[in-house]
Amino acid sequence: MELPSYFARYLREIQPSRTNRERAIQLHTTLRGRLNNSDDETFDEWFSSSFLYGSYIRNTAIHPIKDVDICVLLDMAIEGYTPETVVRKLKAVLEDLGYKDKTAYQRRSVRIDMSGTTMDVVPVVPIEDEERSLHIPDRKLKEWIFTHPKAHMEEATRINRECGGRYIPLVKIIKAWYRYQAKEKREIERPKPKGFTLETLTANYQDPDAPTYAEAFIKFLQNLIDDCGAQLKLGIFPEIPDPGLPGEFLRVTIEPDEAKLFAEIIEESLAVSNRAMEAATYGESASLWREVFGTLFPDAPNSVKSVRVAEMIENEETVFDPLIEAEISEVDLPPLPEPTKTVKMKAGLAHRQQGDIYQQYPSASRAIAKGTWIKFWLTDINIAPPYTIKWTVENHGKEARAAHDMGHWGVTREQESYKWEHAAYRGSHHMICEILQAGTVVARVKHTVNIK
After folding, report:
1. Regarding the domain delimited by 344-451, which CATH topology (the fold level of the hierarchy) does it fall under?
2. What's the pLDDT tens digit per position in 111-145?
């Protein structure tokens, strides 16, 4: 079973907490402020600015945020300085700025340990006076190498947009899966591949049109093992194209035993995931998914453990699973004067346009078949007429692009607060509804539709 609401709950569990995020913000803000006030003359001549990079700023980090990556932009000629010299200078500056006894050398950076959260401070030098392609010092290789952190951020944003917002959550699912399988289940202290490598593998081997996270996860594992399995089983980790540097590959150091273990984990997880998809009952499916993801993945409540998916659909009025999302996509509003104006949206499935609704369809729930008709309607509107309603369909995926139909919109009056649409393209799509008064959006709500 796909169990979309269980995956939604799992994503909430692995998200960095508010406290965790606030701690990261406080740490990097303080450090970057101190860098602007260094008393080191040589460093002051070099220092230009700083910016964030890494999983924290790309929003692909999972709980807890254990490290924040900070690039320190230096205006200097690298020909006159070895990587070792520059990293040592940066370490000395950081110690003078209040981080003494907290710093340690990394291969390309200086690590600052701050009670459970580390900051990796990386010196980078622009190439030809532009901040996109950069030189980064590699102490092990004893040379300056190319990097492009801002391109990595831009690429993550682009892929996520083209996937209808599914790529970044999938990266988090894959990172959490591997952490559980390697670190928690097998007790490997520093498992490889690391986070950014997993993120890049996700970009390369995902199915961007997979309508649910369960299918997206399985397709990723299958695509990865199909393309790289033979090499990994021989202890060879494949070359991975660098998303920020066309024609370049990630510099990954993985030992043969680590590559073989990665293949073993992929194959084992793929087999269990396929069994979870084919499971007959909610209890069996949830139990198998927990073998893959660990106890952070929700178990099925006792009331539905023995229920089959067909029974759940046929008896929605009498069988209730508290983990299934409500049939309402909650409002997403800009700040408004009192009284706050709100609206909610429901959706239902029908065999034909204007036909009888045979099933409610929660936002972002199970994938439905092509050809299904969907009725969207508004409820709980506390907005006084007159107003107009703008309905916007936002499509994603290869099939929609091939049909040159990435979306459309239409407007109705308040008396017609519903809209019919037809499921046509595989992937994850959105119905966005905006309430307008005097040309201004006063309320907005979104409903996600998954199509297989």
Report:
1. Immunoglobulin-like (2.60.40)
2. 999 988 999 999 999 887 555 689 999 999 999 99
Tell me the β-bridge partners of 231. none
Structure tokens at 66: 């254990």
φ and ψ at residue 185, rounded to 5 degrees: -75, -40
Q: Which of 200, 243, 246 is CA-nearest to residue 224?
A: 200
The band of 328, judged by pLDDT with boundaries at 50, 70 and 90, is: very low
Angle at CA of residue 173, ends 167 and 178, nearest 5°? 125
Tell me the mean pLDDT in the region 255-273: 97
Q: Are 412 and 419 in contact (CB under 8 A)?
A: yes
Look at residue 323 in the predicted model and tell me its pLDDT.
40
Which of 377, 368, 375, 376 shows the shortest CA–CA distance to 425? Answer: 368
Beta-carbon contacts of 72 under 8 Å, excluding residues fewer than 6 positions away, are 35, 47, 50, 90, 121, 122, 123, 124
Residues forming beta bridges with residue 121, ordered by sequence position? 70, 110
Q: Give the whole-angstrom CA distance, residue 211 versus residue 204.
A: 18
Side chain identity at residue 235, one-letter code: G
Please report the DSSP string for 232-287 in residue order. Answer: HHTT-PPP-B-TTSTT-B------HHHHHHHHHHHHHHHHHHHHHHH-SBHHHHHH
Find the mean pLDDT for residues 36-41: 90
The amino acid sitting at 402 is: A
In this structure, what token pair is assigned to residue 274?
């396929």
Q: Is the peptide bond before 256 cis (omega within 30 degrees of 0)?
A: no
Kind plus residue range of the DSSP H or E element containing 408: strand 407-413
418's tokens: 């519903």
**Could you tell me which residues are beta bridge partners of residue 418?**
377
**87 close to 110: Cβ distance less than 8 angstroms:** yes
End-to-end Cα, the chain, rounded Å? 14
Phi/psi at 337 (5° precision): -65, 155
Q: Which two tokens stand for residue 297?
A: 């993945």
Two tokens, residue 246: 């066309």
In one letter, which amino acid is 233? K
For 342, the token pair is 């709100």
Q: Where are the domains of the chain?
A: 15-147, 152-278, 282-314, 344-451
Q: Identify whether the C-beta of residue 138 lies closer than 8 Å to the C-beta of residue 144.
A: yes
Q: Would the pTM count as exceeding 0.90? A: no
Return the CATH fold of 15-147.
Beta Polymerase; domain 2 (3.30.460)
